Every structure is written in C-alpha cells, then in structure tokens.
M48 family metallopeptidase (Comamonas suwonensis), 203 residues
Amino acid sequence: MKPIPTPKYSGAITQQLRKDRAARATTENAPVQLALPYLSGYALSLQSKVREWLVAGKAGEWLLKKYPQAHVVRTDKALYDYVDDIKAEYLRNAGQLHKVAYDSKIHVMRNALGLHTRRSIAHGSKTNARHEIHIAAMFKQAPDAFLRMICVHELAHIRIMDHDKAFYQLCMHMEPEYHQLEFDVRFYLSYLDGGGEPLWGGS
C-alpha cells in the first residue's frame, strides 16, 4: 500500500487554502461528507483521499504497517528523561524543564495534543522561567515517532510562543520529518474520530 502523499504544512493560510475554502462555500448543496476536523488545514484533494481510505477501512492497516510498534516511554519519569534528552541536544541553553508528564485532562478532541506552560518565579532580584510540558495521556501508547513529534512541538514553544514560520523551522530542525509526522498523527486522530479502535493499546 503506497503512503498518502502529504504537503509541507506549516500552519500558514496559503493561497491554495483560500481557494479550497472558497470551493467549500460553493458546495452547500453537495451530499454530506465525512467530517475531518483534524485535517481541515490540508488540501481538499488530500482530504478526499483520506475519506476514501477511512470509508474503505484502509487507515488502520496503513498506520500499523508504517508504525508497527508502540514506544516504551510509559511513566512520567521516563517521559521527562525522553524530553530532556531532546532538549539537551537542540535547546541546551533554553532553561530547565521543571516538569514533564502525561495528562489525562488534555482533551485531544479539542485539538490539543500537548501543552507547554511558562511561569516566572522570582528569586530575589532575579526572575527565572519555570517550564512545564504535558502530553495527552492517549499518547502513552503510541508510536515513538508520534510522541517525538508532539514533544518537539512543545519544546519549540520554550523559544517561540507563536505558530509562525520560525516556530516550524525550529520543529523541523529538531525533527526533519515533523510535517509528515504531524499529518500522520492527525490521520490517526481522524481514524479514531470515525470510530476506529486504538491501534497500539489503550482506550
């Protein structure tokens, strides 16, 4: 089975995206299609291909073939070490991580995969930043590539708060396949949203 071709999606509103949105506005009388909230920023042609795969039941097979195993980072301590290792390689001088943990309160269905928080702590005349990263608990049982993509995204927020061009360049510096992995994660979420069973355990 051939992989689905994907665009290099940066989160920016491109001219093509504007055209796609205009095309949607002219199809009010078209038959109701399978909603793809996690892929709304991608080209309509790619969304159509995804719908075909979901309806045909091919999505789970493709994902398992590409990502046959789940990672082994199951505890908060292991997750802290995992994230800190990435930070030590790419963001050595970006401050200390105070906490890294899986979080069952993060609602993936509201389009949040992880969360970075920054608090300023005063120490005398100095102010230190206190960084925390929380990862949606569902990714405790997922491929390593998925976990890494989400961790890289949250780590990038230590340096850059906005989802701008510089932010995505930093994500790609830490993980060259960032955009492909982001699509694959969104593809998996679309599969689950359509009633698919979790592929690597969990519920």
